[in-house]
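In this section we walk through a basic example: taking a raw amino acid sequence and producing a predicted 3D structure, encoded as discrete structure tokens. The instruction is simple. Fold the sequence below.
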Amino acid sequence: MYRHWLEFEKPVEELEKKIDELRAFEASGNARSSEDIAKLEKKTKALLKDLYGKLTPQQITQVARHPYRPYTLDYVQNVFEDFIELHGDRTFRDDPAITGGLARLDGAPVVVLGHQKGRNTKEKVFRNFGMPNPEGYRKAKRLFELAERFSLPLFTFIDTPGAYPGVGAEERGQSEAIAANLMAMSRLKVPVIATVIGEGGSGGALAIGVADRVNMMEFSTYSVISPEGCAAILWKDGSKADLAAKALKIDAGELLKLGVIDKVVKEPVGGAHRDPAAAFKNLKSAILPQLKELKELDAASLVEARYRKYRSMGFFTEPRK
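The resulting token sequence is shown next.
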């Protein structure tokens, strides 16, 4: 499934292609190939561990955008049970770029929602490349309110380059829809847990990210702008994305140090796309204790703690007179 190699994975690509050749040879009846395959697999795993242990911020961005990385529906179907999707914003239409509905987590009812990308061309166009229109954010807000009405914990999954910037989206109130979500999430009287599973881009990500606990998968990104977009603005040169990525501090480790997120969820060697089952297991192990902790707080304490959490981010200094 993950046979799509990134630029920095060229040495791994050569080894894995060799393994594929040996497997085909083994299928033709050569018994000795199995020993060679085992050796190459061990070498590949060691190489992946070394490569992924020292990724640059821009390389992490490439992993976050990997086309075979698990998307929201993959996490929903493998971490939760009995998912029932709900559609539409009750105002304009259903936006496939955001999916969500009711589910169960270890038997307990919850509300889940998140950005959804597509894998092939048809799916990408249908999901608008994971970039929601205003109706997508209004659908999300409807699900926020549903969670609060029935006192259900809310789980969100962030994976978008950003909100869709088209003319139609602006005409239908894109910025207002995002702002309304920020306000609604800040006041929710139920536990809210958000997880960045791929790209977390700009207000399009934050619109479903105002949470009591914010997690990031190890090789995901969370930033006000893409490295390429930042480089184009600051240096008028998109090729300086490496510099921009480093300056933006978009990776999970840096954001944890800054207090923007609460937890980094480990991914299997080589990224979540190489072993999705392990990624699902790691995330579930992370969110269950968080939910238990948040359930011990009453509604007023939840809202107050969430307010304090976001007010405490960042700092400023007074200029000397």
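Looking at the output, two observations stand out. The chain has two domains: 7-54, 61-311. The radius of gyration is 21 Å. In the next section we compare this with other chains.
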